[in-house]
């Protein structure tokens, strides 16, 4: 568990939030955050279509599984398991 803290704490200490969640939260990224996102190869950042869908779901009080009802690859959803 300490490893999780070691990874996340420096990000929170530096930015006060997770920069890769800005799109989902509807926040504007600072220049410094954009540089970090670019440097980390957009680690954990949701593609714009996914971020918009999550924001819509939050506003509507619902949860739609990513990929449900549409082509997940077209929405930019990345599957860690790979092709089946």
From TrEMBL:
Annotated organism of origin: Cryphonectria parasitica (strain ATCC 38755 / EP155)
Pfam families: DUF924 (PF06041)
Name assigned to this protein: Uncharacterized protein
InterPro entries in UniProt: DUF924, TPR-like_helical_dom_sf
Superkingdom per UniProt: Eukaryota
Taxonomic lineage: Eukaryota, Fungi, Dikarya, Ascomycota, Pezizomycotina
